[in-house]
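Entry 0007
Protein: Insulinase family protein
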Amino acid sequence: MKLLSLRLKNTFLGALALPILLTACNVSTPFQLSENYKYDYQQVEGDPLKAKIYTLKNGLKVYMSVYKDAPRIQTYIAVKAGGKYDPVEATGLAHYLEHMMFKGTDEFGTMNYAEEKVLLDSIERMFEHYRTLEDPKERKEYYTLIDEVSNQASKLAIANEYDKMVSGIGATGTNAYTTTDRTVYINDIPSTSLEKWLKIEGERFSMIVNRLFHTELEAVYEEKNRSLDADGWKVYAATLETMFPTHKYGQQTVIGTIDHLKNPSITEIRKYFDQYYRPNNVAICLSGDLDPDQTIDLIEKYFGNWEAKPLEEYTYQEEAPIKEVVEREVFGPDAANVTVNFRFPGEASNSRDFLKMKLCDMILSNSKAGLIDLNLKQKQEVVSAGCYPMIMNDYTVHSFYATPKEGQTLEEARDLLLGQIELLKQGAFEDWLIDAVINDFKKSQIQQFESNSARASMFVSAFTNDIPWKDYVNDLEEMRTITKEELVAFANAQYAKNYSVIYKRVGEDPNARKIEKPEITKVDLNRGVTSTFSQVLDTLQSKKLEPVFLAYDKVIQEEKMNKGVLVRYKQNEENDLFKLYYLLDVGSNTNPTLSMAVEYLKFLGTDKMSSEQIQKEFYKLGCDFGVNVSSDQVYVYLQGLDENMEPALTLFEELLANAQPDKEALSLMVANKLKMREDLKKNKRAILMQGLRNYGLYGADSPLRNDLSNQELQEVAANSLVQMIQGLTKMEHRVLYYGPRASSKAIAVLNELHTLPETLTAIPEEKKFEMKDAVEPKVYWTDYDMVQAEILFLAKSDKYTPKREAVARLYNEYFGGGMGSIVFQEMREAQGLAYSVYSMYAQGSKEGKSDYVFAYVGTQADKLEESLKGMKKLLTDMPLDEKSFENAKKSMLSKMESKRITKASVLFDYERTLKKGLNHDIRKDVYEAIQNMTLEDVKTFQEEFVKGQNYTLCVVGDKEKLDFEVLSQYGKVQELSLEDLFGFESPERVEKEL
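Output (structure tokens):
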């Protein structure tokens, strides 16, 4: 099948066509007739997914794979219609239609469709007229009329009824995405809710009703503005523009142009739906705990009458060859980087050249032993570098990226990337690397099969690319036939002066634009109302699942190895992969140098092997290692193919015990770390979610600031770091093992190979950080060049107690969770104030830690006043609606009844439980408590822990766009510098001090 290494190759825009390697498949058996059943299906002999592929009479494709890890089903409904299908004069239709598919039909989402339709038809005509207006004053006055009629129509709408229905049946992950080639709708549902889900979706795809259009248009505006604020998006757009001077991939964006978003056409959206949302252009892709025979019968019941329609074949003119280097600059506040792009056939070609490109990609960058990995990352020639295929149907872009070191130009970083491609063209890689890449694919294959999402995603990819399943699962055998000589010849032919370079420079964007907000009157939500369709849905009978809670003493074995070290064991009964962890209860809070030490490890060798040789050897074995540090824990891990566990563990133990200091590697690491610190201060998400969030909760003495200063960083000695690494397994620790071996055999391997001292060193006492009680409301803000403003509301609460678990979780589900929550409905649906908005009561992760209240709003700067007012009001006076509460409660119970904690997750769930001072699965307590809870309980909780708090506001935005008079209404306003937030001083300051 399509190829994916263990590392997460970026296919961009959330495209879920995650390729994967399958074992060889032989003869396709088309259209077998299942025994005692009336539907024909296709299967491929040797397919590890054992997929069944049906085609209904109306052309609807159905892909199914049975995987019973939990009583749930991952669902994707894929439509072969993405941004490239948008007409040139009305871009953004596919994406906007995706949003409108959540608004309901004539059966749900409405209280009286006959009356509502009169108003909706008027709104549609008004928008068509609005598109013809050019005078700004006239447009503004006319939009006021649209707003007025829209408000009238909203009185007949039931906002978010789709989301309430699917959450009510226990769905999670409800979402959708639109790419250049496809639109895909996502739900993960309990297996017992399959019929209810099919009934909802069958109705949903039967027609489009553009209700609550103008508030959703505001959400799309916000999404557009977010993209204008994202430097990564600018690089992506420039990449497509330079790669595709004529193809729609480069000539129009999925989200649409600003001009088209300002002049939307409901009529064109309806036409788009009627043209492409047809059963012969759609596939239902399912994987999970299902019975194929029963499932296809239900799909026929709810989708069989969906009318097919002839489809116009999508055609495009092939791009002319790129014959010279194309260069482009983009500007923004994020750290500088460079991207080099080459164009190749798309996934739909399913060609040998496509496979060669994928193989070249892995030889260049596989996270361990690729040319870029060893020559640039391991040698620290740049701060970061890599490559990935940006896979689309018609073409693939092979993108290479690098972030330069301090003092290094983007052009120099570019040349380093091109140098690795030249090595590929020279065949300057070892012969074993191709086989090792295939080992990597094998490991990835096994891991992907453990995911229903990945399984169903494969179906989406095969369907939307028109690749027969028998061809989709046969790629590995062909890839095995590609020789090194053939690959080198391919690289020489394809990687020439036929690329584009995108230089992302730090600076003000000369092309910066934004969409201005229109005036919108808050619409009615009719929160407590339900449609007849929803009421009928509730009457459908479905088998009740019984929750399964973990009895830790039954699912986890506790053994002792040498020196009395505790081993927690769970057997992997599914495949031949192992995971081994050494856990220490000490982290960066207690010793901030630990983070530096574990980072240093990957650049070190032993007295017998260089760091490069070690990386190569692990890759040959199909294993990988790492050391991670959190605030209160270190864990050293080794994972991979069980057949190679002994040699991998031997090598790993040798590295931990005998790592040799390398002063040059340390010097390079420190220089790059200083550069990364400067780059971090250019990242708005890091500024908000790390810097401001920590400062807002802890003040100046925060865990984030508990780090080595730049000067201390430069003074750390290589020997001291190596001693710290070598001391990890000499301290008190425990071992977690998940793998196919019996416990006795796993313990025997550990006793033989895990080196321990005579006496283990005690863990030092943890340094703890306390959240600050806000004596008065405060507003902390940091300047950043951006269109939007992003805001956090923060308030410390009481110490964590298990007694609040149930009501806190129920409060979160009702108030601030998904698209059916109070916060989402009020802020986005009713007023269009934000694209992203949510709130939660965050419980402490361990015994003794404080809980806190957290709310986020990302909005246009010119909506700051309304957004702050809206969120503060919700936190203060939470709307009470019995119907919404019952739906939230039902949703939570349904999710808990179908959730299963399995595999290695069992071990880590137990670890989290112990950190909270518990020894049993608290989900059992939560499940039992929620059943008897009322809206009054949630109200009481909100009044005690949320309402009336002295909230600290944290704001990141452009000082020229923020309204400080508005901000001052929420507390004393204080600007925080980047040094205030992150604590480390700039390299220039260190030099002066030295």
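Curator remark: The longest helix spans residues 136-154. Residues 1-36, 986-994 have pLDDT under 50 and may be disordered.
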